[in-house]
Design a protein that fits this description.
The structure holds 2 protein chains of 2 kinds. By secondary structure, chain A is an alpha+beta fold. Chain A has 10 helices and 22 strands. Chain B is an alpha+beta fold. The chains are: A alpha+beta, B alpha+beta.
């Protein structure tokens, strides 16, 4: 990749004009942070709103009679039982998160699949992964299913944070109709074809509005034609000026997702046995939680290798982190090496008060002290060769640095991602 | 990221190629990091300081600065004993981003005074950045 000129998104010039510090990510030149800095962007997204250029992510559409069968054969979720509790089938206007595995049980990539209509799906996978996922699906395709990569035609902006609804509402032509009943992991719009209601902005730009994101906070992923990106981006910034919106780079995106317990593909999940992870909900367990409810590519190997390794979230006791993951190791209490650090960052919105982690968004009624100015806590994921329990401590070592961290099922409390639309607009 | 001409590099300070600045005050030397270093690091979220009374050789790591994306070692530009650390950085490490010269990191009693005079001038330091 490094020999090639990096790819850019349509917002590249905007990033430059706005003094972004740029970095290379999966072959794309992307903003790491803007002038106000990643800490401000991170905290601001939790208490107000953040805007993220995510047009580097790859998109594919699947159409045709056998699309459902192809996804059932290749995707880790059982599309018949993946929405809500008790589990209902994926249907038009709903989205689901899961993995594509190789036959050997290692992860090809993770994806959000949205059902757009009958026999019509949108797949959002990671940057530069559209080709690989497309080929993988093609290998398992039967007639009656068309796979198209549409990354070059469409773009995506993530609007995240508690003020996201108010901000988006002022840009949409008919916000009331779009927002009505728009629950977590559901979407509106016919931008990619399909059924349902069309969604337009006041200026006529067509969108697909999805109640998803990668921050753990309330908000949207907004899909549009690539040539509309700069205009919509600027409209959202203008609309959010009174709500404290800021443009955010990949550094804040990474620290927000880590604190929210979300994996980064090819870092926390990837070309190794999936094992037992905080993301076991992506596996199609039947109601008894003992067997898978379907067979799928890689499923048998994933099932056999559940005890091969264990991935856990962790939180530290101060902001210090591991900077070079490949040089770090995880030690148990007896100083024995038990694994590797897959992600480590500082969630700057959280801190411990007598051992309990609070966020700046935690209500005082939940026990947060009134005067609370968090210094931040290191957090991330480790992959180890033995099972650990929440509350256990392990030591992360890198050179002279030794960080004691606690195994956690949850890191940043009081996140807003799942709040109802009614409460947020 | 700042352009070179936007950097604040006071002419009265001495610099190291590791992006520390040094200023003589009587028989002590005050140490901090340069505007270039703080700009490269981005938001500093934690400063790991040495013990007062500890001694380091020139070029030895005496602490770390933790930014959002990186952990950066800081190296002592002259050999000596740490006689003071800037306590304010413990609660507000971001002060270094706000003003890296007002917000010094440590004060050293040098053991080899001649090392100070051999540090880089503003112009020599700028050359290492353009090099």
């Amino acid at each position: 990749m490094s020999d090639h000129k990096p790819l850019t998104t349509p917002l590249h010039q905007w990033h430059g004009r706005n003094h972004a510090t740029m970095g290379n990510f999966s072959g794309y030149s992307m903003p790491l942070w803007y002038a106000s800095g990643a800490k401000h962007e991170h905290i601001n997204t939790i208490v107000k709103a953040g805007l993220f250029d995510t047009s580097h992510m790859s998109m594919l559409t699947l159409t045709g009679d056998s699309s459902f069968d192809l996804l059932q054969r290749t995707f880790s979720r059982d599309l018949r039982y993946c929405i809500g509790k008790p589990a209902a089938a994926l249907h038009t206007g709903r989205a689901v998160y899961g993995m594509f595995f190789h036959e050997d049980g290692t992860v090809l990539d993770d994806a959000i699949i949205t059902q757009l209509g009958e026999n019509r799906y949108l797949l959002v996978v990671n940057a530069a992964m559209g080709g690989a996922v497309g080929r993988h699906l093609d290998e398992h395709r039967t007639s009656g299913c068309e796979i198209d990569e549409v990354t070059d035609e469409f773009g995506k902006i993530d609007l995240q944070g508690p003020a996201a609804g108010k901000i988006l509402g002022s840009v949409l032509a008919d916000a009331g109709a779009v927002f009505a009943g728009l629950s977590y992991f559901s979407c509106r719009g016919t931008l990619f074809g399909g059924d349902g209601q069309e969604v337009r902005c006041r200026d006529g730009t067509e969108l697909l509005v999805s109640r998803t994101g990668y921050t753990g906070e309330f908000g949207f992923e907004l899909f549009m034609r690539r040539d509309a990106l700069v205009s919509i981006w600027e409209q959202l910034l203008a609309a959010g000026a009174g709500n404290g919106i800021v443009a955010c780079g990949l550094a804040a995106r990474d620290s927000l997702r880590t604190g929210a317990g979300l994996p980064l593909s090819h870092q926390d999940i990837g070309a190794w046995d999936f094992g037992t992870t905080p993301w076991s909900f992506v596996l199609p367990y039947d109601a008894g939680k003992a067997q898978f409810s379907k067979t799928f590519v890689g499923g048998a190997a994933v099932y056999d290798n559940l005890a091969q390794n264990y991935t856990y979230g962790f939180a530290g006791y101060d902001p210090r982190k591991i900077a070079h993951l490949h040089k770090a190791a995880v030690l148990d209490e007896g100083d024995k090496k038990i694994g590797v650090v897959t992600s480590c960052t500082t969630d700057m919105a959280i801190d411990r008060v007598d051992g309990t982690i609070f966020s700046i968004a935690s209500p005082v009624s939940a026990g947060r002290p009134e005067a609370f100015s968090p210094r931040g806590l290191s957090c991330g994921f480790i992959r180890v060769d033995k099972a650990l329990s929440p509350g256990e401590v392990v030591v992360l070592v890198e050179g002279k640095r030794r960080l004691t961290v606690e195994i956690r099922t949850d890191i940043r409390p009081h996140r807003t991602a799942r709040r109802s639309m009614e409460k947020m607009v | 990221m700042k352009e070179l001409e936007e950097l604040n590099l006071p002419g009265e300070l001495m610099y190291s190629k590791d992006h520390e600045w040094a200023k003589k005050e009587d028989d002590t030397i005050v140490i901090g990091i340069t505007d270039y270093a703080q700009d490269q690091l981005g938001d500093i979220v934690f400063a790991e300081m040495p013990e007062v009374g500890s001694s380091f050789e020139q070029g030895e790591e005496f602490g770390t600065l933790e930014s959002v994306k990186a952990v950066s070692e800081i190296y002592l530009p002259v050999s000596g004993e740490i006689i003071a650390i800037n306590d304010a950085l413990e609660d507000e490490p971001e002060l270094i981003n706000e003003d890296p010269y007002e917000n010094w990191i440590v004060v050293v009693r040098p053991s080899k005074e001649e090392q100070f005079d051999k540090l880089l001038s503003r112009e020599e330091y700028l050359e290492t950045l353009t090099g």
